[in-house]
């Protein structure tokens, strides 16, 4: 609950920026009660091994920048999960989510032991498409009326990153900039 004030402020300041990319917010979304319910749901889903909700903070200033959720974690023959993410309007386009993905994907593959991480984005969201491709995700298809975004069922482009894709992206990044693998990790 200690993060509620900064989360609420950033979400409120970013409401119009986020509106085209998110479901309609409940009327009480920015209240303490709604945040508490969200935390309870996340806690249960985390204990059940289904969701990993994370905030993205600046390493330099400790300022909240956005959030990432690893959800729909599936075990058994699938070993997969879905990610969703958001960035506060004042922090967008500065590489923060790319940096978060560089930290998140190794965690998904090495610690959570997933084989596949999925994401979906609106075809008009060029920024998200670029982010996912840069992180090693590959386009897999087109899903009609996939998610209810901003009050309307909307088509989405489906992306996935396999553990092998991620390792290849790291290798290519380390060689294209003349760096070493340890520099990327």
CATH homologous superfamily grouping:
Gcn5-related N-acetyltransferase (GNAT)
The structural domain count equals 1
Low-confidence runs of at least 5 consecutive residues: 175-185
Q: Reading side by side through the largest sheet, how are the strands ordered?
A: 1-2-3-4-6-5
Element order: H for helix, E for strand: HHHEEEHEHEEHH
Give the termini distance in whole angstroms.
Answer: 31 Å
CATH topology: Aminopeptidase
Report on the biggest sheet. Answer: 6 strands, mixed
Helix content: 25-40%
Label the overall shape: globular
Mean pLDDT: 91
Number of helices: 7
Strand content: 25-35%
Family: Belongs to the acetyltransferase family. RimJ subfamily.
Protein name: GNAT family N-acetyltransferase
Domain N-acetyltransferase: 8-164
GO cellular component, one term: cytoplasm
Provide an overview of this structure.
- This protein has 185 residues and is α+β, with helices and mostly antiparallel strands.
- The protein has a single domain (4-184), classed as Gcn5-related N-acetyltransferase (GNAT) (Aminopeptidase, 3-Layer(aba) Sandwich).
- It has helices spanning 4-13, 15-18, 32-47, 96-111, 126-134, 163-176, 181-184, and strands spanning 52-57, 64-74, 80-87, 116-121, 138-149, 152-162.
- The chain has a six-stranded mixed beta sheet with strand order 1-2-3-4-6-5, with helices on both faces.
- Strand 3 (80-87), helix 4 and strand 4 (116-121) form a beta-alpha-beta unit.
- It is globular, with a radius of gyration of 17 Å.
- The model is unreliable at 175-185 (pLDDT under 50).
- InterPro entries: Acyl_CoA_acyltransferase, GNAT_dom, N-acetyltransferase.
- This is GNAT family N-acetyltransferase.
- Residues 8-164 form the N-acetyltransferase domain.
